[in-house]
Amino acid sequence: MRNGLWLVFLVICMCTHLNAKTLEEWAKTFEPSALIYEERMKELKWFRDVSKGLAKKLDGKTIRSAAEHIKTHFYERDVLSEAFFDITGIRVKHNIIGEGPVVKEIMTQLRTGRVIEHIYVNDADLIGTHLRYQGVVNLSEYIKGEGKKYTNPYLDLEDWLNLEFGQDYSGNQLQLPDQQFSNLYWFRYDWFTDPKNQADFKQQFGYELGVPINWAAYEDIAEFFTGRKQKNPDGSTVTAYGHLDYLKPSPSLGWRFTDAWLSIAGVGDKGLPNGIPVDEWGIRVENRVPVGSMVERGGAMNSPAAVYALSKFMEWIKFAPPEAKELEWHTAGPRAAKGDIAQRIFQYITWLSTDAFHQKGSPVVGKDGNPVWRVAPTPHGRYWDKGMKVGYQDAGSWTIPMSVRDSYRAAAWLWAQFASSKTVSLKKFLVGGTPVRKSTINHPYIDNNIKKWAGLIEFYRSPAEKNGLTVAPMYLIMHSL
Fold this sequence. Notes:
single chain; alpha+beta; two-stranded antiparallel ribbon; 40% helix
């Protein structure tokens, strides 16, 4: 009986090996790509050759990585980890967990030194924490020294979008962006351009219906559409809502505000990526050290602009669907695809890759197969002034804790480079909608299909992308505020 079980096991292993794709097959799988076929083959051959000795050292052991539950990371788990194993012989278990658990795991690992995962896709707005803990691998130093042998000669760091998100004050790379997401204004272009809506809006408010630049116009539009009957391309008629948000108590309700909502209202001082001396959280900083958050201590967290930001967040709920009170960021993310939302001031692009935003027959997709919605830069609040940040961006970034050493560190670094390589990045964007390379957003394939992204590509190619450039403040010391 025992011999029979071993035979079954061996047959399964052999079948798994026989089902492996060749290098040439994987090179064809990652089409379209920023690289032509011959260039892809060169890059994939490098991964294959450099991994031979490393795979032997690991002796079948698995590299563990963790990332949050978005479409991009499911693609990495389901496709890229398989490709990485076929090419390098190194197994990866890419664990998809919530953003909260990712932070909890990495913080536990930094505090205890216990290896939970070998590498994380951790948002770059934790860069300040990594500076304080000094607990993650300095990639700039690693690729010059111990990791030089395992650093892809085709990596091309200059090709990255906003590489600075994962850098320290000296420009050292502590985190390598894997996927980038912005927070933009989302609206129903078909409803905004409908002649009757335009005429009725102008009669009611005295100006043309269009993309709002400020919160006052956003509020007018929210009032106008709420309760109004609207038609969708699928033939359905809905009672529209002029706003969408989420209020359920959860970690995501916290970052509803920390993701630059206060600075969009006008809290803080001018300066990018962070206001100086008062940042977008309303915290006053001197010599890179926070010294006060309240007005009484030179901060702005209880300033008129901050009160205004919170007040508008609460007031506008009357324009949103009733279930907004039970929504979190991940349930609110795809909600507008149901076809009854006119606009949303706080839309993470992460969720715009959801099938419901793009499938034919969806209430938000036209008969030609293109979206009838668009995205645009975020409107700003009453206290905002030119030179302040308007909008939010972040990058889920590959982060290796210092407790991961030797062969495990090298294998983790190889996995991170592969999953963000020029060979795979364009295809990964087409699936997940979270770009990370310039060669992706400027590719001819994107030019030829630009309508599919409904304004997102134009945003990334425009100066407006830099106005929302942000990561959390990089404080070296956090005093009691």
